[in-house]
Amino acid sequence: MTTELDSPTAVVPFGWEGDVAATGPDDRDLLFRFPAADDPAPGTRRVLGMSLYASALGLIGVGVGLRAFVSVLGGVPGFYVPVLVLLGLSSVAAVVGAFLSIHRRFLPFVFLVGAALPLSGAVLIAVSH
Description:
Strand content: under 5%
Shape: elongated
Number of domains: 2
Oligomer: single chain
Largest sheet: none
């Protein structure tokens, strides 16, 4: 007797599938999924480019964090820290989405460009205070 918890989609939400046999080899309807054992490895240039871009975003985020720390010591408005945290976390979430969708053609790059938008807002807020 099987239950709903026996299916992979009940355990792993949002269309993430770890079992290729459950979804079949053609899973174009899934945006995010962890790579299966028989998935081809992404290209080295693709992974290197995404990693360099993500590390550049991370270094900019560290700079924003240092600038924000100095600003907080000097006194800032109440909205300052929560807004910077929200922008930073949304940027990190977009980078995670990019790496989870690495087997798609253009989606990872859309996410990486999308990760730069909230980070640029955080840079503007950090510099203005």
